[in-house]
Amino acid sequence: MPELPEVEVTRRSFADRIASAQILALHLGKPLRWPLGASPASLVGRQIWGVRRRGKYLLLDLDQGLLLVHLGMSGSLNFAPTQPEAGPHDHMDLVTDRGVLRLHDPRRFGAVVWAPGEDSPQAQKLLGRLGVEPLSAQFDVMAFALALKKRQTAIKQVLLAGDEVVGVGNIYASEALFMAGIRPTTKASRLSKPRVARLHAAIVQVLTRAVDQGGSSLKDFVNAEGRTGYFQLEAAVYGRAGEPCRVCSRPIKSMLQGQRTTFYCPTCQKP
Questions:
Q1: Catalytic residue status for 12
Q2: Which domains does the chain have, with CATH numbers?
Q3: Whole-prediction pTM value?
């Protein structure tokens, strides 16, 4: 699944090129996770003011309303002057006077939703329960510590839930917990303030590095220019079960947590 770095990398790869574009047409393919919520024809003539990100959602601000785009489990966007004939997994072409934005989503867990505003019920249904942005000034270490004290579940599950801090998916949760030296199964409420501070710093560092590396291309992720990411090549634990830890040389272990595979070092990461 594209996580925060992949979504941010995607945003950066086309935001400047599509800003100020006028929508000429919107073509939809097979139904996605949620309906558009408006007639495609009603968006013709609208101007795209810019592209923001909230968690794993891309927000295309229009002169009237906004489009919320989610890449789902395996989706990707491509922005080009023209696009070839749509294939069976191409489910949206947003045609503008500056190019065509295409959503490719083989599993159709993605979404394109129109809302009259970010505070509208349509938008808040998707955005209202998202946690703080980890790469923003609002990600405060003291507030993070207070929030974790109230959570009785494993710290990795809290990170994946996204209601305290948003966008830290499976890959980056595993990596941040390794960097912080915290076992993924440790109950969040048991973490001391110094350990929370290390985790806070690790989350910021890992996500920043991942964005700089273009995200992770484990299977099919590419940005809107068709470029792959490279963060997976330097992962410390993710996808490395049985391989030696880069710090202590002991084998990396894996386990299932909430139906997701967790990778960790049993020596470097303490309960």
A1: no
A2: 4-127 (3.20.190.10), 141-264 (1.10.8.50)
A3: 0.91
